[in-house]
Design a protein that fits this description.
The protein is an alpha+beta fold. It is built from 10 helices and 17 strands. Among the domains are: 82 residues, 3-Layer(aba) Sandwich (Rossmann fold); 70 residues, Aldehyde Oxidoreductase, domain 3, CATH 3.90.1170.
Length: 358
């Protein structure tokens, strides 16, 4: 195929790999530029802060001709001369603001946690922009509200009623004209640690839950009405009924487990959906796949080359990389005919990675 594409955003390895396996000529602008990103790309440009991302994209485009720009997290609103293969920045903007997303859900009659007024507790507080969930927190009084605001430098935020259930998501593809198809449903693994209780740290595909079919139906309705093109993800809390939480108008961090479980190349589906062609039916998972992000439990220098552990690991740091306590270090995988079997494989791989790293 050899169509040149530039994948850009905070983390791009998963999308670059999918595009490479689909036959595209891949370039990347990425915050990490991990070792395995170099396996799938012709050239790479690293940036430090998101404010540096536009300049890094322009630098890459000055070095290479690319037909399409493919945004991941952090690059959804970038607008340049290169056309976007995916949701346009103007359309994505609505879903980068959680308050506007809430209004969108309400306009469709989709159940979503209600917005709470001042002094209503307990409440889920979250910034109006951003992804990953690491700043989301349940607060119970004014003092906890003030501590949250001071910790994160008083960002624009919203407070919602607290709903309980399983953190879940649905990966969809949409044609931008009202058509959409649910590709896979996922259980999200959250960190559950103090200060990052709701932070994303992995996924399980497929999701087993009695409310899964209702959730997938809601997701297709949301995706079709969103005006997004290509792949997008809808986050839910799955309790007695699904509660819609967010719309991610780009490739999601669940891509690896979706592809491993369904045996389908998501970048190919994304490209076809952007050009108006959707799958005729929903995909069926042939096995279970799990991804878990390993975080540094102390300040750490990775001295060993972990590339020999692939495909059990990805997002592989270069030997000598330094990580502060709490930073994401490497992704570890498990797979099997059942979720329990996949979890056992994951545990084996996690132990091996830890032993290898000392």
């Amino acid at each position: 195929m050899n169509v040149p594409v530039l994948v850009c955003g905070f983390a791009t390895r998963h999308v670059a790999r999918s595009a490479h396996l689909a036959g595209y000529e891949v370039y990347a602008v990425d915050h990490f530029c991990d070792q395995d990103l170099s396996w799938y790309t012709r050239d790479r440009e690293r940036f430090e802060d998101l404010a540096d991302l536009p300049g890094a994209i322009q630098e890459m485009c000055s070095r290479h001709h690319v037909d399409w720009l493919v945004p991941t997290s952090g690059a959804e609103l970038f607008s340049g001369r290169t056309p976007v293969l995916g949701t346009s920045p103007d359309r994505a903007m609505r879903f980068m603001d959680k308050l506007l997303t809430q209004e969108f859900f309400e306009s469709l009659g989709i159940p979503a946690p209600k917005i709470l007024g001042p002094g209503c507790y307990p409440a889920m507080i979250k910034p109006r922009t951003g992804s990953g969930g690491w700043r989301n927190m349940v607060i119970r009084n004014d003092a906890e509200l003030e501590r949250w605001l001071e910790t994160f430098d008083h960002p624009p935020c919203l407070t919602q009623e607290v709903v309980t259930g399983m953190a879940a998501s649905v990966c969809c593809v949409a044609d931008g004209s009202g058509g959409a198809r649910a590709i896979a449903s996922n259980r999200q693994i959250l960190r559950g640690e103090e200060g990052a209780h709701f932070g994303f740290c992995g996924s399980v595909t497929p999701l087993d839950h009695p409310g899964g079919e209702m959730m997938r139906g809601m997701a297709e309705r949301i995706a079709g009405a969103s005006g997004c093109r290509g792949t997008l993800g809808i986050d839910f809390v799955l309790g007695k009924e699904p509660w819609a939480i967010e719309v991610n108008p780009r490739f999601q961090a669940t891509l690896d487990t979706v592809e491993a479980a369904t045996g389908t190349n998501l970048f190919s589906l994304h490209d076809r959906a952007c050009h108006g062609a959707l799958p005729k039916g929903r995909l069926q998972a042939s096995r279970y796949a799990i991804r878990r992000i390993l975080f540094a439990d102390r300040d750490t220098v990775v001295r060993e080359d972990l590339s020999s552990l692939s495909p059990a690991v990805a997002d592989i740091p270069w030997p000598g990389s330094f990580f502060e306590e709490g930073q994401a270090m490497v992704s570890v995988y498990g797979w099997g005919e059942s979720e329990d079997e996949a979890m056992n494989v994951l545990d084996t791989h996690m132990k091996r990675v830890r032993q290898y790293m000392g």
